[in-house]
Every structure is written in structure tokens, then in C-alpha cells.
Design a protein that fits this description.
This protein has one domain (19-166): Alpha-Beta Plaits. It is α+β, with helices and mostly antiparallel strands and 171 residues long. It has three helices and six strands; from the N terminus they run βββαββαβα. It has a four-stranded antiparallel beta sheet, sandwiched between helices. The protein has a two-stranded antiparallel ribbon with strand order 1-2. A hairpin with a 2-residue loop joins β1 (2-6) and β2. It has helices at 61-76, 113-127, 147-159, and strands at 2-6, 9-13, 31-38, 80-87, 91-98, 140-144. The mean pLDDT is 84. α1 (61-76) packs across α2.
């Protein structure tokens, strides 16, 4: 929290969000993007059992809906697909891929990463309200720059459920 005095009156301001986006980067260009989206207040709503984990655990109805919505992204955007994903108890990780689309059949403006995430989050929230579900305001993104980075993130996604107790989002 930051406080400033103006004209003898003390004003409080919320902490400033750290900007994670690259300045002047075109987030609609072809590439691989690692995305993390958290459930509001870190609530555990996506796994039906957070006990001992051997493989990916059973998902709640909300978790299943999110999985379907992730898989449907490529039906909405002909030049976008999900490479890998994992649904954790209170957040999701996925690799979003935007490809050059010379064969899509019709000219279209390439969606930006933020536009895709905004629509995804809105769709899930609207359809899961009866389960008292909502997302955290923002999300984390990382531009994947090379094959080594891509493989490291894929490994992280695959191993993440078995390391839930060590996860920074663990509650």
C-alpha cells in the first residue's frame, strides 16, 4: 500500500501491479505462450480430491467445464490451439499457440493473447456462476522463445500435479 499526502490530506493507493508484458511486443503474432490463471482468492474448486496424487486427480464439475472450454479454444480461433495444459486445484497452466494462418479460408484479424484469455475467462465464469466460481483479476504469461524453454515448460506442466504440495499456489 502506498500513501501520499496532498494538500494536507493523506491518500492511500492500492499497490501497483507489476507489468509482466513486454513493451512493444505484438501479442497477436505467431508463437508459444505459457499461461497461468488462478481461481479468485486461491479457492480449491477444480479437483474433487486433493489427497495423495499419483496422476492427474479427478476434476470437479467446474474443472471438467474448464477442460472442455480449453479444448474448444481452437474451434473458436482457427489459428490458435492448446499445446499442453494442466488443471490444478486452484489454477490452470497451459501453452497457448498462435500460428500463422494462410490457409484459414477467410481473412481475419489475429486475436491477441489477452483477448483469447479474456474471452475464455468470461465464458467459464458465466457458465460456472452456479458453482460460485470466479477467476482472479489478471493472469501470468510468458513468451516461450525456444525449443529448450518449451520442453522445460511442458515438463513442468506434466509434473505439476505430483508436486502440488510444493506448489506456490498450494493452500
Amino acid at each position: 500500500m502506498v500513501a501520499r499526502r496532498m494538500g494536507g490530506i493523506m491518500y492511500s493507493y492500492l499497490p501497483q501491479r507489476k507489468m509482466v508484458r513486454l513493451k512493444d511486443y505484438d501479442y497477436s503474432q505467431a508463437g508459444y505462450y505459457f499461461i497461468t490463471i488462478c481461481v479468485e482468492n486461491g479457492r480449491i474448486l477444480l479437483w474433487s480430491d486433493v489427497g495423495a496424487i499419483i496422476d492427474r486427480p479427478p476434476l470437479t464439475e467446474t474443472g471438467k467445464f474448464i477442460e472442455t472450454a480449453l479444448r474448444n479454444i481452437e474451434t473458436i480461433y482457427s489459428n490458435v490451439y492448446i499445446d499442453e495444459y494442466v488443471i490444478m486445484p486452484n489454477h490452470i497452466h497451459f501453452i497457448l499457440v498462435i500460428v500463422n494462418c494462410n490457409h484459414c479460408g477467410r481473412p481475419m484479424v489475429a486475436p491477441t493473447v489477452s483477448r483469447i484469455i479474456q474471452q475464455f475467462k468470461g465464458f467459464v465464469t458465466k457458465n460456472c456462476r452456479q458453482n460460485d466460481f470466479s477467476w482472479q483479476k489478471s493472469y501470468y504469461e510468458h513468451i516461450i522463445r525456444n525449443e529448450q524453454d518449451l520442453q522445460k515448460i511442458r515438463d513442468y506442466i506434466h509434473e505439476n500435479p505430483s508436486k502440488w504440495c510444493d506448489d506456490k499456489y498450494y493452500k
